[in-house]
Amino acid sequence: MNVSWHADDDLLTRYVSGTVGPLDGASLEQHLTGCADCRVRIATHVDVAPLELVWSRVREQAQAPAPTLVERLLTGLGVSASDARLVAVTPSLRTSWLFGLAATLGFVGLGAAYGGTRGLTFFLLVAPLVPVAGVAFAYGPDVDPLYEVGVAVPYSGARLLLLRTAAVLVTSLPLVLASALLLPGLSWTAVTWLLPALSFTALVLAASTWTRPTFAAVGLGIAWACAVGAAALDRDPYAVLAPTALLVYAVTGIAAVLILRLRIRRLTPLGSLS
Amino acid sequence: MTAATTVGLTGITKKYHGTTALDAIDLSFEPGITGLLGPNGAGKTTLLRIIATVLSPDAGKVRLLGRTPATPDELAQVRRRLGYQPQEMGFPRAFTGFGFVDYMAVLKEWTARAARHDEVRRVLDLVDLGDVATKRVRNLSGGQRRRIALAQAMLGDPDLMLLDEPTTGVDPEQRVSLRQVLSRAGERSTVLLSTHQTEDVAALCDRVVVLDQGRVRFDGAVRDLVATAAGRVWMADAPDPAARASWRTGTGSHRNVGETAPPGAELAEPTLEDAYLLLLGDRALTTEVAA
Fold first, then answer.
1. Is residue B237 one of the residues assigned to a domain?
2. Hey, are the CB atoms on A89 and B103 less than 8 Å from each other?
3. Of A83, A94, A153, which to mutate for an interface test with B (greatest number of B Cβ within 10 Å)?
């Protein structure tokens, strides 16, 4: 385009500050579309700080990930936003895991309601292991793709493990309790399974100061299956929840908590990965 | 050891199921970039893991940033000033590049959201990934994923950066821009860089450590390692059966790396790769030339 005139500094200043009249303004805009020189000059009149602020806010809006459902739930419960971030990626808190869990417990509950002794045995087998599996799949080199890089950071591994355990218990225990309501003739069984469940969870946590939580959970699962199986063969599946058995769970659970208290700071020291 | 020593290793030994990964290693590092070279299984990754505090040695003493980390508190102090890029890193499914680096920043105690997000943007811009920060990591290329992994290691400008093959799978153009980023980091921090690429070491590092079978085979200036190959690299019209390695170059003549001059050969200027081949012999060939 042939340019016959150039904008003077006064016009540019008035345009940038917004005090230019409509006619001069329109004329300048028309001119700027065709004149590279004046575009360069007007740029020097513009204060970039507010523009950069706007741009950084736009980037923030576009790039920062929106908090997930779990994160919003946790912050609603008073957990800090950054802690919620760390908990929300837990494999055993994913929606797919929770749906799978709900479906399994639905089947188990129905089996217990209508399946007689066998259905009940199945419920006793599964219920206490649900939180144990959730905890085992919440932390550690087998399930967390970021475990190795997550050890080399100042954030406490113990804190992360306990946060995730709490979140797993809060989500999984109500689901098991709901399925326990399907048990025939609402008995104490609907709640007494909580004791082995909590005791086993504490055992897995204590064991994770020595070994991988998944190993500990598999070992416990096999032992529990043997105990429930043996009781079922005696035609008395409730034996695993007999008062003496409950006492054993309570004692081992308390012992596990004490060991955990003593050893938890060793959770991710040098050598937790080999 | 001097006051500037950031990493001091004495007698570091690590065994896995009977095989020795590291055999009584003594090394110390100061600010600047050091390249770790060696064939697969030489112990490079084990060494970096030990310095990164994710693995404990079976024997030996590790001194990091002026501390001997034994208690959890001392470990946390060291980890605050350390950036680590592991050789392999999985990414949780739904993570975007930004989300991933943000997650790592939370673990590195950036609790204030606005400051944390600014820092995440800074490191993503450093590795040229600002534009794809909203894409899911699963949908990025291998080279882009390596750069994301590098970005998290640069959070907070750590005094000690441990990078396990940061340039693997990164395309040549990006590799050059990564070199600029790393060389700037090396002006202030201690950067240890394990790699298979002798060109990266030649381009970036003042110092090179060659590991082989868990032992240090060379430790010194890059130009000193190159100098060991002087007078042992020849250009000839035919391959030399006596040479350590011999290949036909783009110009049609053959580059022979060996002890004796083949008939009618001319001496050639040695490269770091030649020196590395001569130092390690056949074991270098199995990975370096094949790779």
1. yes
2. yes
3. A153
* Cβ neighbourhood burial of A37 (10 Å; 0-12, 13-18, 19+): exposed
Give how many domains chain B has, as a whole number. 1
Q: How open is the CA angle B231-B232-B237, to the nearest 5 degrees?
A: 105
Residues of chain A contacting B79 with CB distance shorter than 8 Å: 152-154
C-alpha distances out from residue A71 to A84, A270, B94, Å: 5, 31, 14
Q: Does the residue B277 lie in any domain?
A: yes
Q: Which residues of A fall below an 8 Å CB-CB distance to B?
A: 56, 59-60, 62-65, 80-82, 85-86, 89, 145-146, 148-156, 265-266, 269-274
Could you give the ipTM of this predicted complex? 0.82
Say if B140 falls within a structural domain: no
Its domain, for residue B248, covers 226-288
Give the C-alpha separation, B74 to B80, whole Å.
10
Tens digit of each residue's pLDDT, chain B (291 residues): 566 789 999 999 999 888 899 999 999 999 999 999 998 889 999 999 999 998 889 999 999 999 988 888 888 899 999 999 998 888 887 789 999 999 999 999 998 888 999 999 999 999 999 888 889 998 998 889 999 999 999 999 999 999 999 988 888 888 888 899 999 999 999 999 998 888 889 999 999 999 999 999 999 999 999 998 888 888 888 888 888 888 888 888 888 888 777 777 888 888 898 899 888 876 666 544 433
**Whether A155 and B106 lie within 8 Å, measured CB to CB:** yes
Q: How far apart are CA B91 and CA B287, in angstroms?
A: 28
Does B159 reside within a domain? Answer: no
User: Is residue A193 exposed (0-12), middle (13-18) or buried (19+ Cβ within 10 Å)?
Assistant: buried
